[in-house]
């Protein structure tokens, strides 16, 4: 995320902690969400992601710190603004639509003023492309349509911040990919400020301008998708985004991704460190090849494009990192 791209901060979380009795769920969390941006909070189950979103929305009390939305302090040691006055729209995992209401009435439910309500509802229906099903109830909609209704309902009151809590996790893989791209486009088209909570690294990298990695209730790293992927703060952060390989070159350990390694034929007499192909998994566009090194060391994960020949199981291979033979 370019520092010049977003200049105004819409959400600021400073030193926020949340505890349930003796158990600390969030510990001194700090993050800023620029206006008009999408920030993803990424972490495994149980790391405190949803608790953080609920605290921001006013659904969970904090035990320390300050939360500020659009320049107004909504939580600190002296006050806690009610959820309905925080100007936060939420898109929950399952959509949480009212089953007895049509698409139109679901979208309009959160609009307090009657003035201009119908126009606003129709604007949101057009935005999410649901004009043909606007008079249907949720039970007659697909999973993707229901999530678009939930997004439209959250956007309708024009909140300062949209919070999305694992919004695609209940969908099948193909629909999840399509809807993810569609929601990202809609949020940017609308100019919304969004905080996405997810355990899916692909989702975070694809949608976000900024990724906040949350582990054990603490922020471990904040940066652009490229920064956290290419230069993770530590191995735990790096492993959230896929396999890591540790290769020793000239006595130094290098941590690299599977696609940064290639397999080569053994050249006798060169002193190459060798390995043996232990497993091969076909992943569609590529093969994932696991190589057991000769001697000590952990198995290596190597990506081989589907168009290339894959060594047979048990084949002795050399492993190359860029132009350096290992």
TrEMBL record:
InterPro entries: AAA+_ATPase, ABC_SmlMolc_Importer, ABC_transporter-like_ATP-bd, ABC_transporter-like_CS, ABC_transpr_FbpC, Mo/tungstate-bd_C_term_dom, P-loop_NTPase, Transp-assoc_OB_typ2. GO terms for molecular function: ATP binding. Residues 11-241 form the ABC transporter domain. It holds the Pfam family TOBE_2. Signal peptide: none annotated. Keywords: ATP-binding, Cell membrane, Ion transport, Iron, Iron transport, Membrane, Nucleotide-binding, Transport. SUPFAM superfamilies: MOP-like, P-loop containing nucleoside triphosphate hydrolases. SMART domains: AAA. This is ABC transporter ATP-binding protein. It comes from Gordonia phosphorivorans.
